[in-house]
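May I ask for a single protein's sequence together with how it folds?
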Amino acid sequence: MEEQFYKLYPDSDKNSILSEISEAEIFRNYLKYKYNLQPDFLEIYSTNCGNNITNLLKLLKEENITFKNIIISQDATMQLRMEAILKKYFSENIKIINFAVYSSKVCVKDGKLCFENDIFGMWDIDRYITLLMGEIPRLTDDENGYGPRGTGYIAHIDIPENVKNAFLILKQIHGDKVRKADPSFTST
């Protein structure tokens, strides 16, 4: 992410963004640099999707912030998982509003997969495929997934049959791109 920021804003103050800072701090610096905005609160300790939610909930509690609605703005590849994590902690009376920060279409050009349109700050196509291919195993509610029958990190999700079938077809072609969870980032 830091590399992308510097590509997009090469004249930014590199001393203000160090490799040791969190993604949240990089986004904060982007908002300040681009729009001169500052967040009211910033959670900077998360290392994964689960931490994003649990640390956010901790911050909201510490600041005595109550809410009936929450907007999730996340990379589209992880959007559904973020909602499933939130649903693990909330009853039906909290409205979760998903806002994916981009929408992409993949096509074939010159025999290679690519994005139909350029997307500002987007992953390269190989990284995007890796992120997508890692989500279905995580979202699957079985002994290997993150649902209640697996690690219990997320609420149960019903994955549509056409999505499961598409994943199996893609796995035959891109099996090496099924991203494995890194146990060093495990959280509850």
